[in-house]
Description:
The chain is α+β, with helices and mostly antiparallel strands. The protein is 34% helix and 19% strand. The chain contains eleven helices and twelve strands. Strands 5-4-3-7-11 form a five-stranded antiparallel β-sheet. The longest helix is centred in the middle third of the chain and has 20 residues, at 137-156.
Amino acid sequence: MQFYSMVYAEDCCDPCLLELQTHLPKYYGTLSSPEAPNDVYMKLEDVTRHFIKPCIMDVKLGQRSYDPFASQEKREQQIRKYPLMEEIGFLVLGMRVYNLCSDTVDTFDQHYGRGLLKDTIKDGLAKFFHNGVCLRKDAVIASICRVQNILHWFESQRQLVFYASSLLFVYEGLPSSSTPNTFPLIGTPANSPATVDKSWDGEDVGRQEEGEKIEKMAEYNNNNNIQGAVPYDCTLDSNYTNCRKGGLHLCAKAHLKGSSGDAATVGTTPCQPVSVAKLPQQDNSTWLSQQPPNGNANKSQIQGKGEDGEHRKSSRREEGVVQGGGEAKRLSEGTAQVAVKMIDFAHVFPSESHDHGYIYGLKHLLTVLKQILSDDA
C-alpha cells in the first residue's frame, strides 16, 4: 500500500514514477468491510477485465527472491525453493492457458515452474503461448514488446530496486479472424466475440464499451461516495527505515494461490491495521471504501499516461524489429490483445544504482521469448 500510494500520489510529478504507472495495475485506494472496518484491503484494477478467455501467467523476476534484510533462514528457504533463480533470473509461478480444441483451461502451478531447468525453461515457457493447435506467435511478439518497454524503464531509472516482484502476463485466448496460425471457430456467428471487428488497440469494440462502463462506475464510486483517505507516510524512505527496524509488513489478507508462496514479510512484529473512520455506504451496500491518495483526480496520470500514453509509447517502440528464425518480423500495435503488468511490491527499496538483478532477469526472459519465436519460424 505504501508503494502504490507513493506511485499514484495526487501530487506526484516525478517522471520516473509517472512512467512507472503505465506498467502497473491502476490503484483505486483501499476497501474495508462493514463487519471488520479495521481490516483494510487494496483496491486494484482487474487486468483481465477486457479479455474473454484470458490466458494468465505469473513470472517472478530477479536473481534473488529475498530482500537485503531477510534473515539467513529466509534466504536459505528461498534459495532451496528454486536454486536456479540467480542463473535464470526468473521463475514461472503459475499459468492458466486456454485450450482451443477442448474449450477448457489448462493449469500449471508453482511446482511446474520450479521443475523447469536451464535446458527446459524455453519449452516450459512456450506452453503458455500454445493453444492446443499452434503457437500464438502474435501473443509472443506482443509480449516481447511489452517486456522491452519495462526493461527500458528499468535501464533509465536509478531510484528503486525490486525483490520478489512479478510480471503478470495476460493475452486473449479466443482467436480473432486476424490472428495468424489459427482457424475460425466452427459455427461461430458473424457478430460473436471471435469475429467482431477490432479497435485500433486490439480490443474488441463490445468488450471495450463494457470496460468503459465498468470504469465509469468505479470512477463514480471513487469520486462521489467516498470519504478522504487516512493520512500515512507512504514514502520509500519510511519503507526502508521500517524494514531496517523489522517493522514493515504486508497487510494483505490473502494471496493468489500458488502466486507468491509464503507471505512476504520482514521481521516479526505483528502487522498494525490502518485506522479507518466510519464511512458512508456505497451503492452496493457491501463494502466501505476510502479515497485513494490520488482520488482518481489525477486522471491524466491514471488514464492518459496509463492507457493512451502507454499505447503511444508502445506504438513507437513496437515499430522496431524482432528477429525470428533469421526472418525480420515487423511489429505493430494490435497484433494481439496482450497485457504485461508489474505486480507484487512488498519488497521495494530506494536505490542509487540500477536494479541489476531485475534487469538480468528481464534480459534473459526476452532471450527465451525470442528463442521460442525463432524455433517456431
